[in-house]
Amino acid sequence: MSEMRILVIEHEDGAGPGRFGEWLVEAGAEVVILRPYLDDPLPAGLEGYAALIVLGGSAGPLDDTDNPWLPQVRELLRRSVAGEFPSFNICLGGELLAAATSARIVRRARPQIGIYNLHTTSAGESDPVFAALADSSSPAGPGATIPAVLFHQEEMELPDGGELLLTGSDAPVQGYRVGEFAWGTQFHPETNSAQIEQWLNSDPLALPEGKTHESIKAEVAAADAELIRINRALAHSFVDFLRDRQAT
User: Fold this and answer.
1) How confident is the model at residue 143 (pLDDT cuts 50, 70, 90)?
2) What's the confidence (pLDDT) of residue 61?
3) Phi, psi of 144 (to 5 degrees)
4) Are strands 30-34 and 5-9 parallel, antiparallel or unpaired?
5) Most exposed: 27, 108, 164, 244, by fewest CB within 10 Å?
């Protein structure tokens, strides 16, 4: 059994850790998934775990009535920001981290769905985890440019004191860090075209102008080799960070 256990919170069926979880295991971590929507209890703290990962889902970060575990997740994320343990928070997870730190969350008139080109900031290129994105990409413009999968309608602003690490599109907060080691993303590093197809078929979101189900699936499939290379590096970078932290 790995000495590096990562606790993962999954919010709904079909929104699991996917291949990002596989890459964490490949890098040497043990992934333990809790599903509060199936009544798995969430812990008050993270004793016995090296880090927390909070996944995405169709809920909004303040939809507590239908998702009564969300206040406890936000409290865990406040503790991560305070320095108790690292966390990596994806899409809804990133929005929960923003909400936990009192950042503003707004609903877009139109969602972002499919492949969008994002780029690292100077802070991202020196970040202990997100630097892997720059290292895995070809520099272009103000920072390394990467393709990323987006599937969201809620949009977050950067929390006070947060470092913007990845930006691009008309939803500029795509990757950020609050405190020493609480990371949030708007993009999905875990997703492939099959999962996107499942989400398109189950989620009633209106599509971005000019896009169809078929065009979205095609653009995600076309970018898959790059998505694998980039997001695998990001998963390994997170485990490397945890390993270095354990060694100190």
Assistant:
1) low
2) 97
3) -65, 135
4) parallel
5) 244
Residue 247 has pLDDT above 80, yes or no: yes
| 190-229 pLDDT per residue, tens | 999 999 999 999 877 889 999 999 999 999 999 999 999 9
Whether the Cβ atoms of residue 168 and residue 118 lie closer than 8 Å to each other: yes
Q: What is the pLDDT of residue 1?
A: 41
What lies within 8 Å, CB to CB, of 68 at 6+ separation is none
User: Residue 118: which H helix or E strand, with range?
Assistant: strand 105-120
| Helices (H), ranges, the chain | 18-26, 70-81, 92-100, 122-126, 131-135, 193-202, 213-222, 224-247
Evaluate the CA torsion angle 147, 148, 149, 153 in order and state its sign.
negative
What is the bridge-based pairing of β-strands 87-90 and 51-54?
Answer: parallel
To the question of pTM greater than 0.90 for the whole model, the response is yes
Q: What is the pLDDT of residue 145?
A: 87
* CA–CA gap between residue 189 and residue 70 (Å, rounded): 22
Minimal CA–CA distance to 191: which of 214, 215, 167, 224? 224
The residue written with tokens 């947060």 in the block is 162
CA 232 to chain centroid, in Å, comes to 13
Helices 18-26 & 224-247, crossing angle to 10 degrees?
50
9 beta partners = 34, 54
Task: Name the residue type at position 190.
Answer: E
Question: What is the token pair recorded at 186?
Answer: 């708007």
Among all chains, which residue has been given the structure tokens 């599903």?
35
Contacts of 44 (CB under 8 A, 6+ apart): none
